[in-house]
């Protein structure tokens, strides 16, 4: 029996808009500004609202010790490993309203649409909303999926601190999530398959006029924190020859990162220093300490490491020349992930059957799927976003592209759940 799957576009878009109201950002004129940092009041409100939507639909809801939310539609053989989908609802400062949310609310709508179609899935279908895909608060991305996949040590995770030196252990307890983080890990046979729907966050689909991207691999991210310590003091009285200005050293380090990332000669290497904390941070004080956070990614982790080696050679020189100390702390260095050929083929067949043009592509952004790949066969569906813009308020995906993505997701979930 084939089931007609109808996606309720009006409801989906209105839910995306409602979710965007749980924000800590001031409104802007050029889009929808969303700031939703993990375990902030807005994040907690968004979680409660999502759980209400799921409960209203009769789905089972649970959360784990780090606050990952699991929304389950039991299959006729609930003892079989489930098929799962999902993404995140946290948002970096001053972001947009589609990153992650399309995969969560789109996943929910896919499940509702399948239910409305009269499907009784053999395997259970589960939606996961991951805690802190974004690294804003604790400096490391994909916190929830790292713990699910056993990639992050639970003791190290609980000891991580935010900028106010509050530990994850304290912050999650305050948010109502207690219990050992070790209990978050799921075994590798827990899910039969995993699919994440997400905006592309790059320009290719829109540029080529293709509505669906099928991800074949996810580039490998790494994160480092540099602390540069010099000698500061009064901006008027400390003589230029006597200074060891930590910010001037940091400026050279930032440019070294850019130079070596460009020197690989491939667009597959990207490196960004996106934060710079200057101590004491006063206009009339020579900076004595600077903390930089580096985000570096590559489809080839060996090439990513060779850029780091070149940066290290430069900062050895910097240390000597500027008489500063530089310490480097590894936050994460992850391997790339490959999609499951079976799921890629199934997504291709789904697009062909629905006459939807698609393109196979690499994900340059990371996603929770990078870590779900360690415990399950994965696939990802991308939809276009306007001008390739993401992590900004003018991030936009059209209602029709969003609906099409959810349609492909729903069909794929139904097929995988019947396996
Ligand atoms: C995820 O938000 C990323 O930075 O790729
Ligand atoms: Mn993001
Ligand atoms: Mn995302």
TrEMBL record:
Residues the entry annotates as binding Zn(2+) 2: 99, 134, 391
Binding residues annotated for Zn(2+) 1, in chain numbering: 88, 99, 198
PANTHER family: ALLANTOATE DEIMINASE-RELATED
Enzyme nomenclature, EC number: 3.5.1.87
Family from the record: Belongs to the peptidase M20 family.
Keyword Zinc part of the UniProt annotation: yes
Co-factor remark: Binds 2 Zn(2+) ions per subunit.
Self-association and partners: Homodimer.
Keyword Hydrolase: yes
Names of required cofactors: Mn(2+); Zn(2+)
Gene3D superfamilies, A to Z: 3.30.70.360, Zn peptidases
The protein's name: N-carbamoyl-L-amino-acid hydrolase
MF term (GO), any: metal ion binding
InterPro entries listed in its UniProt record: Amidase_Cbmase, Bact_exopeptidase_dim_dom, Peptidase_M20
Keyword annotations: Hydrolase, Manganese, Metal-binding, Zinc
Record-linked SUPFAM superfamilies: Bacterial exopeptidase dimerisation domain, Zn-dependent exopeptidases
